[in-house]
Each structure stands twice: as structure tokens, then as C-alpha cells.
Fold this protein.
Amino acid sequence: MDLNRFEKLNDNAWRIPISGAMRVPGVIYADAGLIEAMDDKVYTQLVNVAGLPGIVGAAYAMPDAHWGYGFPIGGVAAFDPDTGVISAGGVGFDISCGVRTLRTGLTQADVERCKPQLAAALFKHIPAGLGSEGSIRLGSRPMDAMLAGGARWAVEQGYGDAADLERVEERGCMAGARPDDVSDKAKERQAREMGTLGSGNHYLEIQVVAEVFAPEIAAGFGLAVGDVVVSIHCGSRGLGHQIGTEFLRDMVIEAPGHGITLPDRELACAPIASSLGRRYLGAMNAGINCALANRQILTHLVREVFGRFFPGHDLPLLYDVSHNTCKRELHRVDGVERELYVHRKGATRAFGPGHAALPESLRPYGQPVLIGGSMGTASYVLAGTVESESRAFSSACHGAGRAMSRNAATKRWKGRAVVDELAARGIIIKSPSDRGVAEEAPGAYKDVAEVVEVADHAGLARTVARLAPVICIKG
């Protein structure tokens, strides 16, 4: 993008002034290099979001932003509950896709002694790939109980324990879920997909803490150089996709009746206070619970495997945070605390120290913000800051962000070659799909270190630790 289209706020923040149908400005958090490398569609989509009814403050894009469906991925927007809208495109198709990280109490040397066997066992025990199915079969009543209960339901079924829930957003269960607002087709798609990774950029990764930037916060998070952790990245699978598909269609159809003119059909939305808006909220909250339950079950499967190799290691949860949601939150706007509906699409909640939503053990340090890498690159642990509240409604980036499309990646790389290249660097990749590996080649993404550095310098979140991959189970 052309930097001349922006007002420079500082080296890491750029404003799009209000013009045309915009109700608020747009703000992109990025350095000059990241902005220049962004697709022009990010600019267009951010301008479109800034024109939606009831939007508050500004339309924001994180440093990993790239073109998405309606909203840019890496987009953040907050709406007034009375005059604002909710957009299925502003949440995305993979509702509550997110990352959870587990501590192991192990060192890299412990893992290296059995690395090939551990990788093979994880790959065998944890279903991954397009259309993957698990051993769990949910009928109608258990399905509704899962959609209402989230990770709490999973713990009640024996997948983990109550201590896990303290380290999950919303304590493991999103309030306001309404299983009756989820279609039978969406439920059918999910009936055999609980406890599965799925495909695309989803993964389960064994990582080592390679570097610590904020020792006090890292210690509070239970992280030290040389520690091994496990990160799980996945979402609501087929159920979330079906919810998104159905409500986007309905929102397009009903938009004119609500006096909403859509600059892009993909930006389909409905008034939060409307019947359609309330039904989408009920279904979306159920989708969030599906994702939370799914990651909880996957945690149990990981623990089963680690228990065979490393008896006595409990793998406590560091944190679980989503990055495709719309949540009702309290935020201060122009000095006044207001209830807002905050869309985060490919963006992570980043509450600062002292926030009441955080468990007491984490409150002194701020919320863990888990930033995923891409097989051969680093992942990061950040911590939310108090300043992030005024920067972007307590939001930060969620990953590196794609630098090229999946089709372009498959033309440039071959999956087997990527696997071999990473193996030469000591990183084991296990995947059912060579094409999937090629689509997710490290070179298809932006430099995650640069993205994290900008997020830190912009005050969105503070860098705590860098994680290097050792084993990656890839969908």
C-alpha cells in the first residue's frame, strides 16, 4: 500500500482519515515496511468496516493484517449495543479459532531422547487433516450440552480437570450460547469432529522456550529458557464454518430491511438488537463453546501421549485465547465506560495487568497473548498491557499473517521438500497432506518477529518469550 494514503501517527501507527461513508477513522498498527507489503484490499476493507452503523472509536488493523472475508484478517471493531451491528464476516468462518499453550516441566534434552517416537505417537493419537474425525460421537442431547457448556462440559466428561478452566477465556464457557440457534446441518457436521485439529493453518506443536524478553512476566507465566511447551491451534471445525455460511446468507438478505447498505456483500451484518442479530449471537457463542471444548479434548489427548513417555508430568495449562470472536465487553471511550460488542477477526484479546477477567495468578502480569508461528518459524508469548485498552480495545495480533495465497504457495513449494528442509534443521513435521504443508510453508507468511516487535512498540502487548518449534503435527 502507498504510505501517502495515511496520516502517520508514529513509526508503528497510521491513520486513514474519515472520508466518504466512513463514520470513524481507520488505524493500522504496522511499520512502514509491513504497510507497504500489505494488499490494497486491507485498506479498502478497513474503510468499509469504518462505515458500518454504530461503530465506535476507529476501525483497527493489527500488524499481521491481510485481506479477508469482509473484514481484514487482523481486524478489530467495536459497536454500540443499541445502534451497532454484528457481522458474521467480522467474526469469520472458524469461530473461536485460537491457541492454547501447555507447560510440560520438560527440557529439550528430555524430548530429544525420544523425539521421533513422540512425534509418531502424537500424529497417530490426534486426528488431523481435512475432514478428520475423532473417536467421539455426539448425539443430539450431548451435542447441545457441549454447545452450552464448552470446556466445562469437556471437563465434566473427563477431559482434563477443573484447574484448566481458570486458564481459559470466559473460564471455559461462553455465556449466552443458544444451541437451538445452531442448525441441524451445523450440528451434523460436528458430530464426529470433536477432538480433531482440522486442516489449513491448524497445528499441534512441541516448542522450546528459546529466549525470554521479560523475565519477571515469564516467571509469572511459569516459563524459562529451555522449557518445553505444547501449543494447540484450532477452532470450531465444521460447525463454525456452517454457522458462518448460513448467517452470512441471511444477513445479506435482511440488510435492506434494516436500512443497511452494504459496500461489499461479504460485510453482511445485522443490528445487534434485531432478531437476526440475537440469533447469530446465540449461535456464535455456541460456536465459541465448541472450539473451547475441542481444544480441551485435544489437551486430554496430548496428555495421554505425554503420560506414556514422561510419567508424572501433568502438563498444566498456561492459557487458552481465541482470535475469531465478537464479545460484549466494558471499555472506556472518551473517559466514559461503555458496554461494546468487540469484533476480533484474526486478532487476540490482550487485557492488561489488574483486569478483573483474568485469574488471580495472572492478574499481576496481564493476559497471556499467544502468537502462532508457521512450522519452521518462531511462536511468541506476549502479555496484555494497560495501554492496549486505549490503542485498540485491548487487542493485539494473532500470528505472522499470510504474505501470499495458498495457491501461490503450492506453486512455489512442494510439501515433501518443506518437510525435508525442516527435518535438516531438527524440526519434525507430521501431516496427512503434502499439499497442506506446501500451503503453510514458512515462506508464505510475514516475518513473525517483525509483527511481534511492532505490536510491542505500539503498546498492544509486551513481548515475553520466543518459542522455537521441535515437532509439528500439521493438519
